[in-house]
TrEMBL record:
GO molecular function (one): L-lysine 6-monooxygenase (NADPH) activity
EC primary class: oxidoreductase
The name this protein goes by in its record: L-lysine N6-monooxygenase MbtG
Family statement drawn from the similarity comment of this UniProt entry: Belongs to the lysine N(6)-hydroxylase/L-ornithine N(5)-oxygenase family.
Transmembrane segments: none
Catalysis performed (reactions): L-lysine + NADPH + O2 = N(6)-hydroxy-L-lysine + NADP(+) + H2O
Enzyme Commission numbers on file: 1.14.13.59
Taxonomy, superkingdom: Bacteria
Taxonomic placement: Bacteria, Bacillati, Actinomycetota, Actinomycetes, Kitasatosporales
Amino acid sequence: MDLLGIGVGPANLALAALADGLSGLRVACVEERPAFRWHPGLLIEGATLQVPFLADLVTLVDPTSRWSFLNWLRERGRLFPFYFAERFHIPRVEYEAYCRWVAGRLPNLRFGLRAEEVRREPDGLLAVRIAPTAGAGASGD
């Protein structure tokens, strides 16, 4: 593994999405929870993100990425309604659903695994001890 993300929040989810499809770079992320969750219990009805939708997981780095928020809307038949609503700040509930969609489709995410130890080896590389947690699985949905 060239790069291992510990935890699957928006930052490592973005990293995994941007690395998806890059040849020659082996990237994986592990998360102890059984599925992607963003701020569980704090998704207050009507609350929006504090940044515009273009600051999704990938668009500012790769506007052509299949993991963009706009592509998520398109796949749901909601791109034109979103456009005509003229909203730059999306509801937090919707952002979490978008992130779950990405997490459920990326092959380089592993849920139900806990990184229990990280240590530096004599050759300078890092070794990570990973163990399964209850409800182990490999997808984010």
